[in-house]
Amino acid sequence: MSTLNVINRDESRRSLTKGLRRKGKIPAIVYGKDISNQTIAVEESDMLRLLRNEGRNAVINLNLDNNKSYPVMAHEIQYDNLKGEIVHIDFLKIDMKSEIDAVVPVTLTGESIGEKEGGVVEQPLVELNIRALPGNIPNHIEADISELNVGDSLRVADILDKLDVEVLDEENEVIASVQPPTKLEEETADEEPEEPELVDEKGSGDKEDKE
């Protein structure tokens, strides 16, 4: 569990919030069942490093002004759509002994048999909804597609026995499939370029006809 040092902030003054962003800090809030809501700020560089190294579902030891510490998770992260920057974070205090719900990205592994034959891999389900103890939530879930032929699908039910968490999605939902090559690609590959017709620019053909 990584430690993230944060500071208290004054929510009542918006000018201070803007000043925090200019100083490289992200406005945030921490809340939970047995604590009152507390407005805080976290160093942007520290948060980005934590997300990069441990992922979106990392369990964090939130150290508040070097005085109080809470085990938390980043329940919601708000981004500026234009700049791609984090503008606000909601930290949820958690009980390490109680299961919680989380959303985990799915990563496809392996090269499918069908893909080697020209098939196209599609992934309609890019995330799984799971329930687990905070310390058991993975950064991502791997789904091996190496045995899929053209026309085959990998469903949630096919990977359940490889997971140590409860999956909340329907078992028949398709994670990935291998589709046949599109008809347009096949026709383009089969077509041969036509040779251009020769045109007599001097009109020699007309001269011969007259003669």
Model description:
The chain is an alpha+beta fold. The chain folds into 2 domains: 2-94, Ribosomal Protein L25, Chain P (Beta Barrel), CATH 2.40.240; 101-190, RNA Polymerase Alpha Subunit, Chain A, domain 2 (Beta Complex). Helix content is 18%, strand content 39%. A 6-stranded mixed barrel has the order 1-3-2-6-5-4. It has a 4-stranded mixed β-sheet with strand order 10-7-9-12, with no helix packed on it. Strand 2 (25-32) and strand 3 (35-43) form a beta hairpin. The protein starts with a strand and ends with a helix.
Features:
18% helix; flat; 211 residues; alpha+beta; RNA Polymerase Alpha Subunit, Chain A, domain 2; Ribosomal Protein L25, Chain P; six-stranded mixed barrel; four-stranded mixed sheet
Query: How many distinct folded domains?
Result: 2
**Secondary-structure arrangement, i.e. CATH architecture of the largest domain:** Beta Barrel
Q: Which percent bin holds the helix content?
A: 10-25%
- Structural class of the helix and strand makeup? alpha+beta
The stretches of 5 or more residues where confidence is low (pLDDT under 50) are: none
Q: What is the number of strand segments?
A: 13
Cα-based radius of gyration, to the nearest Å: 29 Å
Number of helices: 5
Q: Into which percentage range does the β-strand content fall?
A: 35-45%
CATH superfamily of the largest domain: Ribosomal Protein L25, Chain P
- What is the residue-mean pLDDT, rounded to a whole number? 85
Taken in chain order, the helices and strands follow as EHEEHEEEEHEEEEEEHH
- CATH C-level name of the largest domain: Mainly Beta
The geometry reads as flat
The major beta sheet can be summarized as: 6 strands, mixed, barrel
With strands numbered from the N-terminus, the spatial order across the biggest sheet is 1-3-2-6-5-4
CATH topology value of the largest domain: Ribosomal Protein L25, Chain P
Distance between the termini: 98 Å
